[in-house]
Amino acid sequence: MADNVRPRVRVPDSAAAGEVVSIKTLISHPMESGQRRDGDGNTIPRSIINRFVAAYNGETIIDVTMEPAISTNPYFEFQALIPESGTMTFTWYDDDGSVYEDAKDIAVG
Amino acid sequence: MTKRTLFAGLLATGGVLVAGLAQAQDIINDELVINGDLNIVTQAPAADHLDYMSVVRSGWTFRSTETQAMQMDDFDNPGMLGVESAMSDFTTAMGADGESCASCHDGPESLSNVRATYPQWDEEHGEVQTVEMQVNECITERMGAEPWGYNSTEMINMSGLISWAGRGEIVDIAIDGPAQETWQMGKDLYYTRTGQLELSCANCHEDNYDNYIRADHLSMGMLTGFPTYRLKDARLVSVHSRFRGCIRDTRAETYAVGSPEFVALELYVMSRGNGLSVEGPAVRN
Fold this sequence. Notes:
The complex is a heterodimer of chains A (109) and B (285).
Chain A: E1 7-10, E2 14-15, E3 19-27, E4 49-56, E5 59-65, E6 75-82, E7 86-94, E8 99-108
Parallel strand pairs in A: 2-8
Antiparallel strand pairs in A: 1-3, 3-6, 4-5, 4-7, 7-8
Chain B: H1 3-13, E1 32-34, E2 38-40, E3 43-45, E4 55-57, H2 65-70, H3 79-90, H4 101-105, H5 114-117, E5 120-122, E6 127-129, H6 131-142, H7 153-165, H8 180-190, H9 201-205, E7 212-213, E8 216-217, E9 228-230, E10 235-237, H10 239-248, H11 260-272, E11 283-284
Parallel strand pairs in B: 9-11
Antiparallel strand pairs in B: 1-2, 3-4, 5-6, 7-8, 9-10
Helix pairs in contact in B: 3-7, 8-11
């Protein structure tokens, strides 16, 4: 199990109706690929975040399948069109079954 | 040794290729503003003790624009993850008396002068101390707890927090008085050639900064950004780990992390940055 997994997101507090805003997300995670061996030659088991989803007022903005070659502390930056006030939710799915969540409100007007 | 003979020497060994001599870069980007409001001095007149340089530059000015950008916003700087983790260690009780760093030091801001003035002479112990040694002094002598490993993740993160707290402070390392002897030892190490390649720190970081070695843009080898988040390692890297890497690249056996030689070298190299701002945790490739 990965320790110290902590999501961070940056979302503007407010936007004009129909504005396209920039979103940044980062989650601390080792993203162990499953391809490495330890000092004794044993395979270090794979432990990655395998999926990331962002949604606004329940509607999916992006849904990413993540693979083992992605670096430690995965970072995503993307844009979203904001039609009205609401809540953006972020969900990361870990190989070990853990789910990490964060949410931010955006006010329009 | 002139630049030309150095390159001939490098090419002859076949181990290190110099990929083209960059034109002396007249146009460098030296404007580092972090989070839109923290101005960092990345270029300054060289300290008087530097005989062969007139200007010193932060390692940031040598990096690609993409790497530079990561350091301009704390959200994009992955080194901040270590700082945040140290922030929680700072208030966590440990040791016999159940005290945390915050019991005596309030917040990390109260240590804002530390990075810019360390390594420094410690009267009580009669030696030059690095930040790591000072932190372990508090942990063992004041908190009655087990010391952290010099290069442990906790220690590197705490070192990152102390850099972050002192970001923007102008480096001002005392090199005279009781620290002078250690400083001289560090200076001697800096100019001593090591390894099969027979290169000193100065051969790369003084004679050849702004040139390329393999695909890497050689900087002046400053310590003002440490611990640095290295994209190659995907983690914060300590000063002494960087020294080990550089010496190993000359194909030499290296000194140990925390050794008196590295403490002396750190004192000397940090003093080469006098006049620049503290900018750690920096982002480097």
